[in-house]
């Protein structure tokens, strides 16, 4: 019984850790979207890191879940309306701009000068 | 007039006929070769990826540069925590102009995995 509960505890902890990592990643990217310049971004990133570090040693699972839910709500509220997207990625400025031609079409470089 | 003609005869540049077959199908224009100023065919080699990944990891403030090797684990070997791991992966994304999905970026926890992922990524540059 205790083995089952330990496994359940560990699984829940792992899920929480993954949620926190992904939340931190998204929030960090969003920080860069709001503070476009690097010298502003570094300070904001430090502040964000501090907000994560303050709750580093919380042990109670339900408290952790509540904190994560609050943080995700805050992230959603302050999400940037026009985030930076890498140009080739979906939503980027070069997405589908230069698609590969359909199969069966080829460029004849020596048109009119063929050997035969 | 006569002087001009005599002068021109001496300074005339010999005419060179360009072989059209060479210019059109030579190495500069043929489809399989590398085109100048082209964004294609610029895939990174694995050595280049390794060098750049290692330089990014060495530049991370909490890392001792002398301990970084191509098969080092961020959290076990370098003494970082999971949020530092997230920051390193984001720095790698910016270095290689990538956008890694969150779930996949979460799996990258060592230089070995990072090098493998980036060198296999078609858009890494």
TrEMBL record, chain A:
The keyword Membrane applies. Keywords: Acetylation, Electron transport, Membrane, Mitochondrion, Mitochondrion inner membrane, Respiratory chain, Transport. GO terms for biological process: mitochondrial electron transport, NADH to ubiquinone. Its main location: mitochondrion. GO terms for cellular component: mitochondrial inner membrane. Coiled coil: none annotated. It is found in: Mitochondrion inner membrane. The keyword Acetylation applies. It is a peripheral membrane protein. It comes from the Eukaryota. CDD domains: Complex1_LYR_NDUFB9_LYRM3. This is NADH dehydrogenase [ubiquinone] 1 beta subcomplex subunit 9. It comes from Rosa chinensis.
Automatic annotation (TrEMBL), chain B:
It is found in: Mitochondrion. GO terms for cellular component: mitochondrion. SUPFAM superfamilies: ACP-like. Residues 47-122 form the Carrier domain. Pathway: Lipid metabolism; fatty acid biosynthesis. InterPro entries: ACP, ACP-like_sf, PP-bd_ACP. GO terms for molecular function: acyl binding; acyl carrier activity. Keywords: Electron transport, Fatty acid biosynthesis, Fatty acid metabolism, Lipid biosynthesis, Lipid metabolism, Mitochondrion, Phosphopantetheine, Phosphoprotein, Respiratory chain, Transit peptide, Transport. Belongs to the acyl carrier protein (ACP) family. Complex I is composed of at least 49 different subunits. PANTHER family: ACYL CARRIER PROTEIN, ACYL CARRIER PROTEIN, MITOCHONDRIAL. Carrier of the growing fatty acid chain in fatty acid biosynthesis. May be involved in the synthesis of short and medium chain fatty acids. Accessory and non-catalytic subunit of the mitochondrial membrane respiratory chain NADH dehydrogenase (Complex I), which functions in the transfer of electrons from NADH to the respiratory chain. HAMAP family: Acyl_carrier (MF_01217). This is Acyl carrier protein. It comes from Rosa chinensis.
